[in-house]
Amino acid sequence: MLTRPIIERAVRTALTEDAPWGDLTVELAIPPELHASTRIVAREAGVFSGGALVRETFRQVDERVVVDDLAADGASFAAGEVLARIAGPARGVLTGERVALNFAQRLSGVATLTSRFVAAVAHTSARIADTRKTTPGLRALEKAAVRDGGGTNHRFGLSDAIMVKDNHLAALGAVDAASTTAALRRLRERAGHTTSIIVEIDRLDQLDAVLAADITGVLLDNFALGDLATAVRRIGGGVVAEASGGVALDTVAAIAETGVDVISVGRLTHGARALDLGLDAD
């Protein structure tokens, strides 16, 4: 969840990085009494995200800077549309400009890409989810942007749920069907009934051993479409069927049509392009 402390810390870190000893240009070139009236303008269409970061950036730089008419997170916009109006002491506006735009551009890029994946599977019941492939230190922000784009958040981190992958099974000595089922059952006993357990498999012949254990979901990694459809039929709705691996805009609809419940897409965060937004003077 994108909490106030997370927002404040992210902005403080970004401003410290950008102006650790102040803004030399504005301090020497811009008179302190000068006023600026500006607007954030979209150079291309998209879905907005990061409004709280824009407000907090200017608040931390100079509380006298006023941010008005800020677009709502999750709102679609067209090229040329005004997304915010920012006015106040010119020094504060100019010092905060780049950091505010960086947040808005990055997060709006994630929201926009997510919205395109969501639109591609709208004719199915599949949900589009993110992954842990996020920018270090910005996970909460990027996952909020995924929600703004209409997507669903996967687990936030390693502490949220159990996800057993091939290396975990190898470490547990699960070398065949019987030992895999036994290892997963022991894990369930230790975890308790309220903890989600998701198991990743990359071959159809691994499915029965996983389903024989009391798990919550199966992550079908890099499955061919035919095998995905077969797996979904065999799962039969008993656990969550999730597809992942190499998902792209031109393939996600076909994946969704196999009947999977969730499609996790790492590129929502690690592959999103920052949108082109600019700060223009009135």
Indicate the topology.
Layout: H1 4-18, H2 24-29, E1 35-42, E2 46-47, H3 51-61, E3 66-68, E4 76-77, E5 82-89, H4 90-120, E6 127-129, H5 139-148, E7 162-164, H6 166-171, H7 177-191, E8 197-201, H8 207-211, E9 217-221, H9 225-235, E10 240-244, H10 252-256, E11 262-264, H11 267-270, E12 277-281
Helix pairs in contact: 1-3, 3-4, 4-5
Description:
The chain is of the alpha/beta class. The chain folds into two domains: 4-118 and 273-281, Aldehyde Oxidoreductase, domain 3; 124-270, Aldolase class I (TIM Barrel, Alpha-Beta Barrel). The protein contains eleven helices and twelve strands. The protein has helices at 4-18, 24-29, 51-61, 90-120, 139-148, 166-171, 177-191, 207-211, 225-235, 252-256, 267-270; strands at residues 35-42, 46-47, 66-68, 76-77, 82-89, 127-129, 162-164, 197-201, 217-221, 240-244, 262-264, 277-281. Helix 8 (207-211) links the parallel strand 8 and strand 9. The chain is elongated. Its EC number is 2.4.2.19.
